[in-house]
Structures are given as structure tokens and as C-alpha cells.
Amino acid sequence: MSAAGQPDLFNGVLETGMRSVVVLNEFSPIELDREQLSLLDYFVVHTSQAGGPADMHPTNAGSFSEYHVRRRRIEEGIKMLVRIRLVDIVPDPDRGACFRAGDDAPGFVDLLNSPYNRELVDRARWLRASHDEDSGFLAGLRQRIERWVIEFQQREAPGGTT
After folding, report:
1. Which domain of life is it from (predicted)?
2. pLDDT mean over 33-55
3. What is the domain extent for residue 35?
4. Which one of 94, 103, 144, 154 is most buried, by most CB atoms within 10 A?
């Protein structure tokens, strides 16, 4: 639920977990840390703000604040995928913990064929291509978030412009 008591249609644990799987798949074999994954989770649905295709989710003046909510939700999403048997943890004596599709994964993966999810994959591919072309791409995304936070704080400060 959002702070206003409305359901988080786009940023619930399941949706965030699904986007994480899509982004990680597109960036494979690159390993992403939590901050990078949080940035990419935001920009995969707000790609126009990074110079890419049209946004998949509505954008408004406070959209950047979603970024701060997502970090915890991403972790919860990955844990949930393990709990609901979409991902199994398999111990490997040489490599430690490994992951494989769980028994319920095929039904879930079938859902990934929806138009929304095809667009999500396309935008994750765009983010990966942008990253491959520009080594500073992720740092640039981080700077945009930081700039928006400052602009928002200035607008919301007493005497700030709205």
C-alpha cells in the first residue's frame, strides 16, 4: 500500500521482483549491486527520463521518490520469489548457493508474454545497450535522481516555488 492507503499497482513486492528478474536477465553476466538494481528498476519504467523510449508508468513531479521505496521492495521481491517456489536455492559444493526455476515458475513465465512485460524487456534491453555504450551511464542515472531530490526539496521548502 502507498502512504495514502492506495495499492501500489506498480511498486508492490511482486511487481518489483518481476522487474528485478527482467533487468538482471538483460544485464547478465554483469552482477549488479542493490543500488544499481534500484536505479535500473526506476529507469526501466521511466526510460524517457534517461533519454530512452516512452515511459511505461505515469510520470509526475514526485515520481523520483519511488526510487527510495524500491530498494527494500527489491530485496523483499527476491526473497518472495524463493518463498513462493518460483526460484529454488540449490547448494553446490563448488560454487555455494545456486538458483534454478521452481515448480511454479513455468506458469509465471507464461505470464511474462503479456504486452506490458514485452515492453518491460524492451526497455531493460535499452538500458543495457545504453550501459554498454557509455561506461558512465549508471552514474548519470544516479546524478539525475540526486538532482531531482534537490529540486523537489527546494520546491517544497517554505517560500519555494511550486
Report:
1. Bacteria
2. 87
3. 13-141
4. 144
> Residue 110 corresponds to which amino acid?
D
Contact status, residue 148 vs residue 42, Cβ threshold 8 Å: no
Q: Is residue 154 domain-resident?
A: no
| Total structural domains within the chain | 1
Tell me the residue type at 137.
Answer: F
pLDDT tens profile 104-153: 655 665 677 888 888 998 999 999 999 999 999 999 999 998 888 888 88
For residues 7 and 15, is the Cβ–Cβ distance under 8 A? Answer: no
In a domain, 108, yes or no: yes
